[in-house]
C-alpha cells in the first residue's frame, strides 16, 4: 500500500463543493479510499443529492486530485447511494456553519 | 451507477437569452401594472389580459423553458433529444408574446398571429420534451410530473389558439366556455405541476434536505391532474357540481403540496436565510393567501377576490419561486461554463460569491412590497395604492434585470 486512507483523504480534501463552499471530505461525502501496492486507487463516495448537475465533474475532480500524488497508476471513483448521505456525516465545523 | 447529467447540459449561450428576455418581460409586466385602475379591474379587460399574457408567457414560461433546458437532463437522467431546438424557442416565444400583447391592447387582428407563433414555440418545446422522455426507461414521480405537465400544456395551447381565433373573429366559438379550461390546463396543469415536480429536486438540493416523504407529491399531483380534467369536462358539460369538485381537489392538492414544501424546509441541513430562502418563503406565503382568497371567491362570487387570488398566485407564488431560483440557477450556469474548467488550476469563486447580495436583497424587498401593496390595492379598489405598488415593483424588476446581467458578466 503506497498511501494510507488518511493520505488519500487529505489529497481529496482539496476538492470543494462550489455550492456549499466546503471540501468533499469535511462534507462527509467521501466514504472510503484504498490504494494497493501498484498504485491503483479506488475512491468510494456519494453526493448530497442524486440530481446533482455537477455529478461527473465532481467525480473528475476527485480523480484528478488523487492522480496528482506521486506513483499513482490508476484511479477509479465509484459513486454510491447507500448509505444515503445526510448532514450527520459532515464534520462539526460544517454542521455548525450550515446551522444544522 | 447514476447517469451523468452534465454530459448533456446545453451551452450557456443557449440558455442565457431565456433569462435575459424573461427578466425584460418581467420589467415590462411591472410597468404595465400602472395601466390598472379600479375601472378596468375585471378579468376579461384587455389591459388585464395583456398583462397576464405578458407576465405568464413572457416571464414565467420563458424562464421555465430556459430552466428546463438545463434541468431536464438532470431530472430525466438522459440527454436532450434535440437541444438545438431551444435556439428557436425563445425568439418565437418572445415575438409571439409581443404580438399577443399588441393584439389585446390595440390590434385584435394580431392575436391569432401571436397565438400561432406562441403555439409553434410551445409545440417545439413540448415535442422536444416528449422526444427526450421517450429515452427514459423507467419513469419516477418527478419524470412523470414532467410528462403530465407537458401533456396538459399541449392541450392548453390548443385551447388558447382556438380562443385567439375566436377573439379575432376568425372562427365562432364560445370563448368564455373555453377560458376556464385554458387557464386550468396552462396554470394548474403545466406551471403548477412543473413547480411541484421540480420542488422535490431543487429544494432538497439547495437546502440539503433529507428524510422527507415523497408521498405528498404523489397525492398532490394526482389530485391536481384529476382537478384539471374535471375543469376541462365542465367547460363542455356545464354542471356546477363538477366545477366545485374540481376546485376542491385543486385546493386540496395545493395544501398537500404546501405540506410537502414545509417538510422539505424543516428537514434541511442548511439553515441560512439567504435571498433564495426569503424568496421561497414569500412565494409560499403568497400561495396560501391566494388560496384563501380563492376559497372566498367560491363562496362569495366577488370577482375582486378572484383578482387578488390570481395576482398573488402569479406575481407572488410563481414570481418569487422563479426569481429565487434565478439566483441559484444563473450563477451555477455561469460558473459551470466559465470557472469549472479552471478548478485545480487556479482559485475559483464559490457560487455564493457570484450573487450581488445587496442588490438581490433590494430586488426581493421592492418586489415583495410591490406585490403586497398591489394585492391590497386590488382588494380595496384603490388607484393610488395600485400606482404605489407598481412603483415598488418596477424598481424591483429593474434590480432583477441588473442582477441577471451582473451574474452573467461575473469574471
Structural write-up:
The complex is a heterodimer of chains A (100) and B (411). Chain A has one domain (5-90): GMP Synthetase, Chain A, domain 3. Chain A is globular and about 40 Å long. Chain A contains three helices and three strands; from the N terminus they run H-E-E-H-E-H. With 100 residues, chain A is an alpha+beta fold. Chain B starts with 11 loop residues before the first helix and ends with a helix. In chain B, 77% of the residues lie in helices and 0% in strands. Chain B is mainly α and 411 residues long. In chain B, helix 2 runs antiparallel to helix 3, helix 2 packs across helix 10 (303-338) and helix 8 packs antiparallel against helix 9 (275-300).
> Helix/strand-derived class of chain B?
mainly alpha
Low-confidence stretches of chain A: none
Please, what is the CATH homologous superfamily of chain A? Fe-S cluster assembly (FSCA)
Neighbour order of strands in the largest sheet of chain A = 1-2-3
- Fraction of residues in H or I helices of chain B: over 70%
Residue-averaged pLDDT of chain A: 90
N-to-C order of helices and strands of chain B: HHHHHHHHHHHH
Shape of chain B: globular
Termini separation of chain B (Å)? 35 Å
- Main sheet record of chain B: none
Give the oligomeric state.
Answer: heterodimer
Amino acid at each position: 500500500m503506497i498511501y494510507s486512507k488518511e493520505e488519500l483523504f487529505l489529497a481529496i480534501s482539496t476538492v470543494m463543493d462550489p455550492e456549499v463552499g466546503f471540501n468533499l471530505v469535511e462534507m462527509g461525502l467521501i466514504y472510503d479510499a484504498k490504494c494497493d501496492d501498484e498504485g491503483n486507487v479506488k475512491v468510494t463516495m456519494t453526493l448530497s443529492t442524486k440530481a446533482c448537475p455537477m455529478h461527473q465533474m465532481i467525480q473528475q475532480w476527485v480523480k484528478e486530485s488523487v492522480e496528482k500524488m506521486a506513483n499513482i497508476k490508476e484511479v477509479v471513483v465509484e459513486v454510491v447511494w447507500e448509505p444515503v448521505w445526510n448532514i450527520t456525516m459532515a464534520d462539526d465545523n460544517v454542521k455548525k456553519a450550515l446551522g444544522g | 451507477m447514476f447517469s451523468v447529467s452534465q454530459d448533456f447540459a446545453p451551452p450557456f449561450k443557449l440558455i442565457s437569452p431565456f433569462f435575459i428576455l424573461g427578466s425584460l418581460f418581467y420589467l415590462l409586466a411591472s410597468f404595465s401594472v400602472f395601466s390598472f385602475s379600479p375601472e378596468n379591474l375585471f378579468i376579461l379587460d384587455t389591459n388585464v389580459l395583456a398583462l397576464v399574457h405578458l407576465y405568464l408567457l413572457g416571464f414565467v414560461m420563458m424562464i421555465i423553458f430556459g430552466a428546463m433546458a438545463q434541468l431536464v437532463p438532470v431530472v430525466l437522467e438522459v440527454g436532450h433529444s434535440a437541444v438545438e431546438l431551444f435556439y428557436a424557442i425563445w425568439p418565437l416565444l418572445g415575438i409571439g408574446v409581443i404580438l399577443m400583447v399588441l393584439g389585446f391592447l390595440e390590434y385584435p387582428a394580431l392575436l391569432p398571429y401571436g397565438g400561432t407563433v406562441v403555439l409553434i414555440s410551445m409545440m417545439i418545446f413540448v415535442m422536444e420534451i416528449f422526444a427526450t422522455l421517450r429515452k427514459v426507461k423507467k419513469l419516477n414521480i418527478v419524470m412523470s410530473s414532467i410528462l403530465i405537465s407537458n401533456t396538459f400544456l399541449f392541450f392548453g395551447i390548443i385551447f388558447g389558439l382556438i380562443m385567439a381565433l375566436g377573439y379575432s373573429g376568425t372562427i365562432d366559438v364560445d370563448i368564455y366556455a373555453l377560458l376556464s379550461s385554458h387557464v386550468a390546463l396552462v396554470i394548474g396543469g403545466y406551471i403548477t405541476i412543473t413547480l411541484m415536480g421540480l420542488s422535490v429536486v431543487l429544494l432538497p438540493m439547495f437546502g440539503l434536505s433529507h428524510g422527507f416523504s415523497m408521498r405528498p407529491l404523489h397525492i398532490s399531483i394526482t389530485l391536481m391532474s384529476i382537478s384539471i380534467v374535471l375543469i376541462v369536462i365542465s367547460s363542455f358539460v356545464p354542471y356546477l357540481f363538477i366545477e366545485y369538485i374540481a376546485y376542491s381537489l385543486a385546493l386540496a392538492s395545493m395544501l398537500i403540496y404546501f405540506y410537502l414544501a414545509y417538510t422539505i424546509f424543516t428537514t434541511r441541513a442548511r439553515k441560512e436565510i439567504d435571498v433564495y430562502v426569503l424568496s421561497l418563503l414569500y412565494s409560499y406565503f403568497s400561495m396560501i393567501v391566494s388560496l384563501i382568497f380563492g376559497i372566498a371567491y367560491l363562496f362569495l362570487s366577488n370577482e375582486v377576490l378572484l383578482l387578488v387570488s390570481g395576482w398573488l398566485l402569479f406575481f407572488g407564488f410563481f414570481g418569487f419561486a422563479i426569481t429565487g431560483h434565478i439566483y441559484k440557477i444563473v450563477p451555477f450556469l455561469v460558473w459551470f461554463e466559465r470557472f469549472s474548467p479552471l478548478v485545480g488550476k487556479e482559485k475559483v469563486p464559490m457560487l455564493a460569491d457570484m450573487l450581488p447580495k445587496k442588490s438581490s436583497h433590494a430586488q426581493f424587498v421592492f418586489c415583495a412590497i410591490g406585490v403586497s401593496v398591489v394585492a391590497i390595492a386590488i382588494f380595496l379598489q384603490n388607484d393610488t395604492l395600485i400606482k404605489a405598488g407598481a412603483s415598488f415593483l418596477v424598481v424591483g424588476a429593474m434590480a432583477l434585470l441588473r442582477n441577471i446581467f451582473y451574474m452573467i458578466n461575473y469574471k
